[in-house]
Specification:
This protein has 256 residues and is of the alpha+beta class. Helices cover 29% and strands 21% of the residues. The chain contains 6 helices and 10 strands. It is elongated and about 110 Å long.
Length: 256
């Protein structure tokens, strides 16, 4: 019994969670309980291209033969239109046919369209330029129901979107200490945030970037329980056997 006492204490501590440990955005719910609340949401201006990004670029015009040199590729999409994919090199450039080196790092998709349009406006009339980042993916790990890598089509993806894709946090997740891992300017950044308060809704990190990783760590109670689990596998079955034997002795004694 002495050996099982610490284990029982750990189980008791884990079961003493309050509703506040699980509710998202608590201060927002409290402050806006009876009226609408307008938050200072960060403005989303589009993803900025980084080194090693892969860009899909397609240029069309009224004269398809005139635009053909700008779409040199061996593959076609579902509408038989050529698609060219470009890897952003270590210097932040792509080598575009008919144009040459084009610096794109730090630019949004809209800005790249404008830059390409300025380069070809003398050669193509009414050019239609499509640009898309192909390698935009989000990884969600830890105490979520569906940890995985999630490729994205829409550029505007928030922290809450990513957690929703992963099936929400489990009951064991530490909602006050979620980690956002991001590679910025060649360095890894770890950005902690809480889902218990509304602060994340107004944070510049609310919208995610390509290759971001969200990690939901377990609460301390689960970590302690996991460490004690091997002991519990031995002690608890043994305790069950002892309890059964004691019960049999008591029954046999009373029947004499």
């Amino acid at each position: 019994m002495k050996r099982t006492f610490p284990l029982l204490l750990l189980l008791l501590a884990f079961s003493c969670s309050t509703p506040g440990d699980f509710v998202y955005l608590q201060n927002a719910a409290e402050e806006g309980q009876h009226e609408r609340m307008d938050l200072k949401n960060p403005e989303f201006r589009g993803l900025k291209v980084k080194v090693d990004d892969i860009l899909a670029i397609q240029i069309n015009s009224v004269d398809s033969r005139a635009s053909q040199p700008y779409n040199i590729t061996g593959s076609l999409n579902q509408t038989n239109q050529p698609i060219t994919n470009f890897l952003v090199d270590a210097d932040g450039n792509i080598d575009y046919p008919g144009i040459g080196k084009l610096e794109v790092t730090g630019l949004t998709v809209r800005e790249i369209k404008e830059k390409l349009g300025d380069k070809i406006k003398s050669y193509l009339v009414d050019a239609v330029i499509n640009v898309r980042i192909l390698n935009f993916k989000i990884t969600v790990l830890g105490e979520v129901k569906l940890p995985s890598v999630y490729p994205q089509v829409d550029e505007q993806v928030s922290v809450l979107d990513a957690i929703g894709m992963a099936g929400d946090l489990t009951d064991y997740a530490d909602r006050e200490n979620i980690l956002l891992i991001r590679q910025q300017d060649g360095k890894q950044q770890i950005i902690p945030f809480s889902l218990i308060t509304k602060d994340i809704l107004e944070s510049p990190d609310f919208y995610l970037q390509q290759n971001d990783v969200i990690y939901a760590p377990p609460r301390k109670e689960k970590t302690k329980y996991a460490r004690s689990e091997p002991v519990g596998r031995i002690v608890l079955p043994a305790l069950g056997v002892v309890t059964a034997l004691v019960s049999l002795v008591i029954v046999a004694t009373n029947n004499r």
